[in-house]
Amino acid sequence: MNTDNKVSELCALPDEKLNRLVEKQAVQLQQPVVPEFEFYILQMVAAALEYNELRFDKVFSNAVLRFGWKEVYVNIVYPSLNRLSLMWSTSVLAPAQEHFITGLYRQKLFVAIDAQPIPVSASAKDTWLLFLPEDERHELGLLLASYLLRQAGKKVVCLGADVPYDSVVAAVKAVKPGNLLFFLVHKDDPENDQELVSRICQQFNTLHIYMACDVARLTELKKPRNCNLVHTVQDLVSVLEV
After folding, report:
1. Across-strand partners of 181?
2. Cα–Cα distance between 106 and 137 in angstroms, integer?
3. Across the strands, what pairs with 179?
4. Are 106 and 140 in contact (CB under 8 A)?
5. Cβ-contact 47, 55 below 8 angstroms
6. β-strands 127-131, 155-158: how paired?
7. Rounded to whole angstroms, how far apart are CA atoms 70 and 98?
8. Is 103 left (phi over 0), alpha (psi -120 to 50) or beta?
């Protein structure tokens, strides 16, 4: 996201001008515009870019009070992560700002996850094992998925980031989940991607396997038949509604 406005100016823009600016940016991102959500997205990002945690917290809390936790994470947090990713990739966002912003979201997600009850017992069908493969360390998507699954009443075993393959095998054997969800986020190596995905889908062919990644990353990847793609939060929500 690149505009002619300074961050402080973005924070001070009236709603009408802010929404027009958001619409222009959303067209560039080819994302649908929902002004009431986009207002909060831009306000939180702008506050974070100023390293203003207090302002970020006030905007975030107001959004939760207005829309509820699930709506905020689906319609504000996830789209803003996409926005931040674009900003970082185009050098609009400095590394220090990226770490600061993701740190704020991590805090919020941990609180939201912790607030969800842990199922006393769950069938394999309702048990999910989540992880990021080796050399993948961007775990915000993983945390968001963990929250949504917990919120839907599922049992979640989240292994976290940069998990060695042998550790995944051991965890599957111990947990006996019915569902496996992993993310391909940062490291982009088509040859290694293919080897990993094929290996996972072959070894765990009795499980429901879900892979979350950007659509563009699939151009050179042959997807096994038993690998279900999750490109957006809504894709995961749709799986949970079945």
Report:
1. 130, 210
2. 13
3. 128, 208
4. yes
5. yes
6. parallel
7. 24
8. alpha
DSSP H or E stretch at residue 166? helix 165-175
Instruction: Record the pTM.
Output: 0.81
Give me the mean pLDDT over the 128-138 stretch.
93
Element (H, E) at 42: helix 35-49
What pLDDT, in 10s, does the model give residues 191-213?
A: 888 999 999 999 999 999 999 98
* Pairwise CA distance, residues 40 & 63, whole Å: 7
Of 12-26, 78-92, 184-198, where does mean pLDDT reach its minimum? 12-26
Distance CA 203, CA 181 (A): 14
Q: Is the pLDDT of residue 106 over 50?
A: yes
CA 158 centroid distance within chain: 14
C-alpha count within 13 angstroms, C-beta hemisphere, residue 199 = 12
Asked if residue 63 has pLDDT above 70, the reply is yes
Which stretch of DSSP H or E encloses residue 128?
strand 127-131
